Amino acid sequence: MWAERARLDPDGLATPAPLWVLLREDWVAHGRSWVHPGFHALAIHRIGHACLGRPAWQRVPLTVLYKLLNELLVRNVYGVELADEAIIGRRVVLGHHQSLQIPAFCVLGDDTLLRHNVTIGFARVGDPREHVPRIGRRVHIGPGAHLLGPITIGDDAVIGPNAIVTTDLPAGATAFAPPARVMKPAPARPPDVPAPAEPAQQAQYLGRA
Asked: What distance in Å separates the CA atoms of residue 32 and residue 13, rounded to the nearest whole number?
C-alpha cells in the first residue's frame, strides 16, 4: 500500500498519519461534531483505506464493516461516493455531504475543503482509472464544481461554484464559472390589459381546471 501511495502521491500532498490521529483531526476539523455526515464519511473511508495491504486475518473483518457502512450509510443516505483507494490528506473537510464523488486513485491534499455537488473524476468514459485529479493542500472547492481528468490543482487554489476544470491550475490560482447574466425586467403590463390565458395543461396542473 505504501509503495502505491508513494507512486500516486510523490509530492506528499496527503500526509500519512496513524489512523487514530487522522480520526481525531477529522473530528476537530468538522467542528468537534460526532454527528456531522462529513466526519462519518471520512471516518469510514479511513477504516477502508487502512485495510488495504494488510494481512487477510486483519483485513477481512474490517473490510466487511467498511463495506456495510459505506454502502448503507455513506453512499445511500449521505450521497457520498468516496472510494477506499482514494488518498485523502489530513484535516480534509466535507462541508456539505450531498452529491460528492471522489474516485479511486484521486489525491486530496491536507486541509482541503469540499462543498456539495462536487464531482472529481474522469474526463472521458473508458479512461484509465488513474486519469483522475491530484489536488494540492488548502484547496477550496465550491458547490457544483467538476474536476475532470489527469489534472493537478496547486496548493491554495480556489475553485468557484459550478466551475468545470479540465486543465492544471497553478498554486494560488482562482477558477470561476461565468457569472450569472442579469436580464432586463419584463415591461409592466398596463392595468387595462388582461393577463394571458393559462394553457389547459398548466391550469390542470395547478388545480384550476
From this structure: 24
DSSP per residue, 119-160: EEE-SSTT--TT-S-EE-TT-EE-TT-EEESS-EE-TT-EE-
- Helical spans, DSSP H, in the chain: 2-8, 19-29, 37-51, 56-69, 200-205
Asked if 107 and 87 touch (Cβ cutoff 8 Å), the reply is: yes
Spatial separation of the C-alpha atoms in residues 148 and 64, rounded to whole Å:
31
Q: Residue 26: which residues within 8 A CB-CB, separation 6 or more?
A: 39, 42, 43, 46, 91, 92
Contact predicate 171/156, CB 8 Å: yes
15's grid cell: 500526509
DSSP state of 118: -
Question: What structural domains does the chain harbor?
Answer: 2-175 (2.160.10.10)
The predicted-structure confidence for 32-59, as pLDDT tens digits, reads as follows 999 999 999 999 999 999 888 788 777 8
Residues 23 and 50: beta-carbon distance below 8 Å:
no
CA-based nearest residue to 23, from 11, 13, 12, 34: 34
Judged against a pLDDT cut of 90, whether residue 179 lies above it is answered with no
For the residues 138-158, what does the mean pLDDT come to? 96
pTM, to two decimals: 0.81
